[in-house]
Every structure is written in C-alpha cells, then in structure tokens.
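Lecture notes, part 5. Sequence design as translation. It can be helpful to think of inverse folding as translation between two languages: the language of shapes and the language of residues. The source text, in structure tokens, appears below.
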C-alpha cells in the first residue's frame, strides 16, 4: 500500500466510528457501578449477585478475547467490530424489561459477549489507516473513546435513574446504542486488503496456537503481564468504586461523578501522553511514569473525605495512569507486527480482563467487617508496586 493511503482524510471518520461504538460499549458496562446498592434493594439480591452485572464483562472477555482477535486478523476489523456492535444493540433492548433482575443480566451478558469483538479492533484499525509515527496517537484516540463511554456510564446513570427511573434510563441507553452501532456499520470500511499469502498464513493458526506463538516473544509476554496487572487494577478499582468511596461518606451520585472525572482525566491524558510518546519515539519511560503516578495517587483517592480533593486526585489518576493502556496497545502492535495486531491486542486484553476477574474477586474476598475495604486498598497498592 502506498504511503499516501495512510493520510487519507477518511481515516478520521473510521476512527471516530470506532470511538463511538467502543465508548457506548464501555458506557453500558459501567452504568450499573454507581447503582449497585439500588439494584440490591430493588431486586432483593445479594451484593455478589448484583456485581455479576459488571463482572461478567471481564470474565467473558477472558473467554472470547483470543477468538475475537483471531477473527479480527482473518476477517478484518470492520466485520468483527460490526458483528459486536450489532450484538450489543440487540441485547441493549433486553435491559428495558426492568421488572426482572435476570432480564438485566441477560442483556449485560450479551453486551459483554460483544465487548472483545469491538475493542480488540483498535490496533488493527490503527495499523491499517495510520502511519507508524501516528499509531500511538490513533490508539490513544480510540481508548479516549472508550474512556468517554466509561465516564458517561459512571456519571449519567445515577442522575438519569434519579430523574426518570430505571426503565426510562435503560430505554435511553438502548436508543443511544442502536444509533451509534448503526453509525459504525454505515461509516466504517477497510483501507486495504491483507495480502493473500499473509491471509493464508494467518488461517493456519487457531486462536490458542496464535496465543502461544505470540507469548514466545519475551517482550510480548512482558507487555501482556503488565496488562494483566494494570487492567486488573483499574477494573478492580471501578468495580468496587461505590464501596471504596462510600465508607468515606461519599454518596453514590458523588462516587459516580468522581469516576466520571477520573475517566475524563484519562481522555485528556490519552490525547496528550501517547502523542508525546510518538514524537519522542519512546514507550517504556512513559509506561514507568504512568505506573508511578498510579502508586502515588490511588491511596489519597480511596481514603479521602474531602470531596473536592477526591475529585482532584481522581482527575490526576485518570490523566497520568490511564494513558498507559493506549501505550500498551501500541507496543503490542509494534512488537507483533500489523498482520498479527488483532491477536496481540486479544492476548493483552485477555490477560487484562483475567486480572480484572482475579483482582476484583480478591478485593471482595479480603474485605472485612472490621477493616472494611482497607485490605482491598492495600492489595491495589501492591499491584501498582509490582507494575
């Protein structure tokens, strides 16, 4: 493909379409985080059962990540992301029936199935439409779309629920999902076709053998391990955000807004830090910086009682730590090569969501009646120290 094709203006439309549909998926994932207490009360279910509305996402990501990555490499990101978007739109409608907790759960499970097929497409799309020197920025913009959806899910859900009730809130989210999924299906297209000999080579791999081939590279294995810890930390933090902040006197609406501020910081950071990384052609120093920032800011965030300072620490944590996600994705594509970018993203995200399941479950398991969430907070600090 000629170098000029990397600079076609339409690449921004394709990237925007991905950002929108990825953002909606993340919005649907986290919109129950600030509502867990109400879900327990409304449906008379345990905290463990209520949390499955959130935890089904990382669990299913682990199961389906490599299959979705292999499908992205073989059939293209337009087909795979489009399939995920259509699935997500259908199951968003199931959540409108709010008389049953299990209708909500069925809807969440269907949306969770769609998640890896949507999110794993970003590295392939970036390699297809953007030159090497701009790929971290493109990946950063893609993750900024995801973070925007997270922020909306955390911040909008309690406000909409308080104003309109749960049923109308679910109708609003379903309408947004259908419109945004339709936009992707109409607007997205591939920039070029993979060469036939490369396609034949890729078809010789199953998802499991591709994972083994990727992890034989020590650098990819290390990036995947860091993804296990970093995404595990972030998902553990967001899963129990209401509980962690609630014991400091912060109510669910405020906790949702703090989460929104944190993700907004992540959006800004994902636009700035990966771009600087591209300009300096370095990745590792910025990843180290992101990890140290998380280590310094997490404890003040989860133990703070002054809501203004909690907003500040949340915003700084998002701005300085979350761009590491885009950098890890960019590194995975650079290490694996464009033809295996989908598989590399799948391996990274599979590991990250495995970390999410394990760390979130461990946080809940070590919580106690006497110490509250403090042991879980120490666990998060230990994970950051290892990173």
């Amino acid at each position: 493909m000629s170098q000029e094709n990397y600079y076609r203006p339409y690449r921004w439309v394709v990237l925007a379409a991905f950002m929108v549909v990825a953002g909606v998926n993340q919005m649907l994932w986290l919109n129950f985080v600030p509502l867990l207490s109400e879900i327990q009360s409304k449906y008379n279910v345990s905290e463990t059962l209520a949390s499955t509305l959130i935890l089904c996402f990382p669990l299913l990501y682990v199961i389906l990540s490599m299959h979705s990555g292999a499908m992205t490499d073989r059939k293209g990101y337009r087909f795979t992301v489009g399939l995920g978007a259509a699935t997500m739109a259908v199951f968003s409608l199931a959540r409108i029936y709010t008389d049953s907790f299990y209708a909500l759960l069925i809807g969440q499970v269907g949306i969770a199935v769609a998640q890896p097929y949507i999110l794993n497409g970003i590295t392939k799309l970036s390699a297809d439409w953007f030159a090497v020197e701009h790929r971290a920025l493109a990946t950063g913009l893609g993750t900024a779309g995801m973070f925007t959806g997270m922020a909306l899910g955390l911040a909008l859900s309690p406000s909409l629920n308080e104003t309109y009730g749960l049923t109308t809130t679910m109708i609003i989210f379903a309408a947004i999902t259908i419109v945004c999924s339709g936009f992707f299906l109409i607007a997205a297209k591939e920039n070029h076709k993979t060469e036939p000999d490369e396609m034949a080579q890729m078809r010789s791999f199953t998802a499991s053998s591709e994972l083994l081939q990727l992890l034989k590279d020590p650098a990819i294995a290390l990036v995947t391990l860091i993804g296990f810890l970093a995404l595990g930390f972030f998902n553990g933090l967001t899963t129990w955000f209401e509980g962690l902040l609630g014991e400091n006197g912060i109510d669910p609406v405020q906790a949702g807004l703090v989460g929104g501020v944190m993700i907004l910081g992540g959006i800004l950071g994902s636009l700035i830090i990966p771009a600087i990384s591209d300009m300096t052609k370095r990745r590792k120093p910025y990843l180290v910086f992101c990890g140290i920032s998380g280590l310094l800011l997490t404890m003040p965030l989860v133990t703070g009682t002054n809501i203004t300072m909690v907003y500040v620490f949340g915003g700084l944590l998002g701005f300085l730590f979350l761009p590491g996600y885009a950098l890890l994705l960019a590194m995975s594509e650079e290490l694996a090569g464009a033809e295996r970018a989908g598989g590399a993203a799948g391996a990274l995200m599979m590991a990250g969501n495995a970390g999410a399941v394990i760390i979130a479950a461990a946080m809940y398991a070590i919580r106690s009646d006497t110490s509250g969430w403090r042991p879980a907070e120490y666990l998060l600090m230990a994970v950051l120290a290892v990173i």
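The translated text above is only one of many valid answers, since several sequences can fold into similar shapes. Residues 132 and 165 are 47 Å apart (CA to CA).
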